[in-house]
Fold:
Amino acid sequence: MGDPRRLRPDEVEIFVARELRKAGLELVSLRERARRRPGPDDDEYVMELAAVLRVEGAERRLVVECRNERLPVGAAAVASLAERLASGETEPVDAPRRLMPAPAAETTPSAPPVPRQGLIFSVSGYDADAVRAARARGVALLTVADGKAAFARTQGGTMAGDPPAWVPEYMAEVVDLDPAGSPRYQLVVAGRPRLILDRLAGR
Structure:
């Protein structure tokens, strides 16, 4: 099937939108906010998307980080996103100037903006400290998984032959902690929005 590290930047928005909608989330909008290289390797990138969901009639704003790196995401990356969300500063500190928002014109004071929540997609997974940090801070973690391997995990971990024709090249899995405190992976399936929404609430 597919190597998640081959997911191209121009495929990211399509993949994220498909997986969120598959889960049963009503996606109002999704757009790229920034893109950067986290290190010297040309094949690594971090793309940041701004998303708006409608949940029970109310809008929720998300910052979605899509990380294509060689190594698993660590707790520092989770903490960095959570701290920016808590402070109201959602642009990466090293974002290109051309992608930074223009200063807002002075207007009549209005209601405070709805706080953003954070969600990370990673092609290389997460270390255990990152999963614990995400749970404590209410950041949802998802992996970009090889479609055949992800489907096989739902069948007990092994599968002879090819998967069904409907299995795509890449699928998303939600990452959280099992009762013993170890990371576990749950495939994003149709009609289960709480699988993601509960992680945004730190559950």
Summary: The chain has five helices and seven strands. The longest helix spans residues 9-22. The two ends are 32 Å apart (CA to CA).
